[in-house]
């Protein structure tokens, strides 16, 4: 693993870094306290912006290519090579994907508290690469998987073979958990929020970052699936392993151009301190009479090293008790008894975004079907293109990825300027509005899947299969919903986070994808058992005998109810400055 200079852990404690020179103000230095690789305050002319962002975006393409190549192929690998049943394999893969995203909370904690974002990305990328190597070994060495089946019954995988494979997948999940919450935040750190020009470029970065994700997905589920089908499992895993290693090299190449921010300590510890101090003071009968009672350090910087001060807001007044000075003449030392206003407001910011996070979970449940039930539908369709080529089932989600690759440039170059003229908002739509559009579209995505599945069962048969292009509308709509919601979430959770909680905030958003995968598994099991199990229920082993369209209608109802809940939450949301930032607002807070 590469050793990073100690200067990466150095960050100025000065928030305003503009230099007074002969009465004028030079603004080539960043205002957020970030440093360059030498440990000096970062200069906008030589670091950050689009000088640094391409390395991060290309790294994301390579990482996503590897992850989705595994995710798409793993169900078939478990079924055909490890001899697991299809429902068992699908459940294991769904749970693995869920764990990969939930582990982002751990990765974000390490980044914010100890390593910083860049070091965390490099460290966990190496863990990811080790997992990829072990996965390739598992697919290449005959003794690590069951022998080819020539006579029924076929031999099952041994406990040792299964443990080796799952060990590799565990390392990949852990690596994913460390990389994902830091990459988007590290990329956004390359743009100075106090510079209006760089601020606009930051939002463009979020769009192109999501474009990179879908480019990686596109290559992973087309080229690599095709290679696996035609060259075997070894090649199917060797190539994404090589891309993983290349992604580390690409990211390291940008070292001279990045802006680095030092870790600021554990935000969870600070959160617990606020709760303990507020409860302690409440039990002591402390009341907040006026804001002047609230404690704040007298320095220009906050008490959180490297973080800017936050203004007091009126929400969650109970938590203000943690900052009440009961002894004005005292010299407060312990944050378990007295917290600063900034520390309290940091916790408030975290609490504020949780209802928005919870009210977008339904889309994550629906999106989980993209690589499971949507692909199961594709298996039952006619996927031939001409006489000599058949689209692999795992490549059918390419329709969603292509839609995203087309829609993002169109949205950025044409739709945003048009909407901006009507709303006056620099991004056309606020992040909450954009998320709302995505959630609304998701209702029609799942409804179209229900209609198409009913048509497939009623009007087609195994001898006369439905053409795979009938599935394009549901893939197109779910891809569109993801474009609006995902980018909106990237913007929202980054903007509403404080200096010391950016990685944690990104992880909260990403964990939604993992929890959505787990909830999807739970929902499938509940509906399956409630309707008669695998033999008589809606979701049977044989899709032609199932009633998958009924399941899709339940998802449609869930998405519809979720959209109404989201509207209620978003209309009442108040941003960090205490003003509204709802789906109906046209201006930034």
From TrEMBL:
Location in the cell: Membrane
Protein keywords: Membrane, Transmembrane, Transmembrane helix
UniProt GO BP: oligopeptide transport
SUPFAM superfamilies: MFS general substrate transporter
One cellular-component annotation, GO: membrane
Transmembrane segments: 93-115, 121-141, 205-227, 233-258, 356-379, 391-411, 432-452, 472-494, 506-530, 550-569
Similarity comment: family membership: Belongs to the major facilitator superfamily. Proton-dependent oligopeptide transporter (POT/PTR) (TC 2.A.17) family.
Protein name as annotated: Protein NRT1/ PTR FAMILY 8.1-like
Organism: Pyrus ussuriensis x Pyrus communis
């Amino acid at each position: 693993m590469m050793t990073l200079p100690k200067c990466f852990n150095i960050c100025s404690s000065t928030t305003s870094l503009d230099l007074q020179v002969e009465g004028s103000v030079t603004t080539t230095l960043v205002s957020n306290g970030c440093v360059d690789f030498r440990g000096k305050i970062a200069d906008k002319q030589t670091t950050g912006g689009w000088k640094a962002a391409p390395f991060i975006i290309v790294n994301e393409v390579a990482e996503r290519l590897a992850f989705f190549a595994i995710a798409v192929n793993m169900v078939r690998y478990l079924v055909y090579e490890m001899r697991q049943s299809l429902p068992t394999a699908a459940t294991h893969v769904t749970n693995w994907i869920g764990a990969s995203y939930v582990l982002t909370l751990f990765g974000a904690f390490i980044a914010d508290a100890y390593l910083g974002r860049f070091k965390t990305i490099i460290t966990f990328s190496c863990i990811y690469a080790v997992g990829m190597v072990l996965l390739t070994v598992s697919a290449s060495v005959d003794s690590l998987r069951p022998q080819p089946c020539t006579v029924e019954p076929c031999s099952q995988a041994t406990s040792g073979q299964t443990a080796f494979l799952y060990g590799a997948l565990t390392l990949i999940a852990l690596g994913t958990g460390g990389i994902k919450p830091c990459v988007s935040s590290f990329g956004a750190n390359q743009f100075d929020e106090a510079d209006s020009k760089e601020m606009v470029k930051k939002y463009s970065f979020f769009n192109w970052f999501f474009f990179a994700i879908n480019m990686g997905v596109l290559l992973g589920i087309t080229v690599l699936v095709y290679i696996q089908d035609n060259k075997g499992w070894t090649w199917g895993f060797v190539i994404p392993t090589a891309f993983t290693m290349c992604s580390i090299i690409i990211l390291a190449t940008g070292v001279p151009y990045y802006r680095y921010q030092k870790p600021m300590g554990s935000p969870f510890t600070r959160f617990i301190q606020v709760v303990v101090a507020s409860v302690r003071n409440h039990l002591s009968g402390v009341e907040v009479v006026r804001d002047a009672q609230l404690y704040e350090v007298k320095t220009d910087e906050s008490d959180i090293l490297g973080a800017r001060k936050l203004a007091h807001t009126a929400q969650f007044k109970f938590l203000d008790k943690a900052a009440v000075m009961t002894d004005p003449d005292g010299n407060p030392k312990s944050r378990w008894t007295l917290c600063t206003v900034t520390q309290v407001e940091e916790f408030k910011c975290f609490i504020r975004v949780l209802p928005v996070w919870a009210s977008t979970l339904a889309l994550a449940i629906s999106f989980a079907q993209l690589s499971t039930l949507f692909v199961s539908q594709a298996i039952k369709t006619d996927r031939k293109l001409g006489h000599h080529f058949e689209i692999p089932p795992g490549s059918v989600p390419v329709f969603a990825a292509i839609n995203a690759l087309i829609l993002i440039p169109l949205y950025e170059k044409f739709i945003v300027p048009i909407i901006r003229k009507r709303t006056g908002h620099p991004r056309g739509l606020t992040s909450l509005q954009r998320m709302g559009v995505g959630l609304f579209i998701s209702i029609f995505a799942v409804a179209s899947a229900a209609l198409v599945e009913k048509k497939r069962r009623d009007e087609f048969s195994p001898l006369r299969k439905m053409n795979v292009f009938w599935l394009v509308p549901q893939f197109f709509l779910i891809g569109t919903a993801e474009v609006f919601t995902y980018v909106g979430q990237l913007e929202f959770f980054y903007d509403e986070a404080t200096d010391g909680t950016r990685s944690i905030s990104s992880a909260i958003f990403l964990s939604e994808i993992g929890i959505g995968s787990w909830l999807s598994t739970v929902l499938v099991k509940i509906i399956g058992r409630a309707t008669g199990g695998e033999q008589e229920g809606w979701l049977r082993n044989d899709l032609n005998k199932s009633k998958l369209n009924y399941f899709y209608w339940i998802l449609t109802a869930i998405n519809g109810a979720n959209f109404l809940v989201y509207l209620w939450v978003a209309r009442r949301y108040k941003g960090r400055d205490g003003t509204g930032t709802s789906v109906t607002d046209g201006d930034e807070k």
